[in-house]
Design a protein that fits this description.
- The chain is an alpha/beta fold and 222 residues long.
- It has seven helices and seven strands.
- Helix 1 crosses helix 2, helix 1 runs parallel beside helix 3 and helix 3 crosses helix 4.
- It is globular and about 50 Å long.
- The protein has one domain: Rossmann fold (3-Layer(aba) Sandwich).
- 38% of the residues lie in helices and 25% in strands.
């Protein structure tokens, strides 16, 4: 099965509809990732099918949790996942990514240029330093993270970056439910509650995944 067929098969299995050009652009993205990975070691995932599943399909599962307009911050974005596939799929949103590793942000900027992703803005730095930059005025509509940290640390590091009424989305593996159970009080202490969860299995490997959406408590809920 050629790469484009693997992408199309995976998209069908997770039930995500994409524009006609999307598969071609994802193929370009993965080809560039393979090329850069030989020199810069951006990701430990090197098998083609695993790249499709764990970088592309896993990233796109978040798309149903996102609004149609607003701004999204991907914290600890690595080589650009989930932020790049999401920016490709959702042109009406502004996507920002932050990572402390310069070579990974350079790769993201390279992809931004060749795919002409005008709604995508990579940032080299630490999330702790983002607040002083006033990037999006009143804060981000959504902040997302994949395997960046525990949920309590994620909330601590992004404190003050979320717009009023904004949401936090944490992408977890099989350990997610136990972490949530252990963190409910801390989540509440930060002023959030779990507003949505979705558990599923990736289509090729069957690996467990859990998406956790945290919303800000209103005065009535507090």
């Amino acid at each position: 099965m050629i790469l484009s067929e693997k992408i199309e098969s995976g998209l069908n299995q997770i039930g995500i509809e994409v524009p006609m050009f999307f598969v071609d652009e994802i193929t370009i993205l993965l080809a560039e990732l393979v090329k850069w990975n030989k020199t810069y070691n951006l990701t430990a995932i090197k098998d083609e099918r695993d790249m499709v599943e764990k970088h592309i399909l896993d990233s796109l599962t978040v798309s149903d949790f996102l609004p149609d307009t607003g701004s999204v911050l991907d914290v600890g974005s690595g080589a650009g996942f989930p932020v790049i596939p999401l920016a490709m799929l959702k042109p009406g949103l502004e996507f920002y990514s932050i990572d402390a590793v310069g070579k990974k942000i350079r790769f993201q900027n390279h992809i931004k240029r060749i795919l002409k992703l005008n709604n995508f803005f990579p940032i080299h730095g630490r999330v702790e330093d983002v607040g002083s930059r006033n990037i999006v005025g009143n804060g981000f509509s959504v902040i997302v993270s994949r395997a960046f940290s525990s949920i309590p640390l994620f909330l601590k590091l992004t404190e003050g970056l979320l717009a009023p009424g904004g949401r936090v989305i944490s992408m977890k593996g099989a350990e997610g439910e136990q972490e949530i159970s252990n963190s409910e009080k801390i989540i509440s202490d930060f002023g959030f509650y779990i507003s949505k969860k979705r558990d599923f299995h990736l289509p090729f490997s069957g690996s467990s995944r859990l998406l956790v959406e945290l919303s800000q408590q209103t005065s009535e809920e507090e």
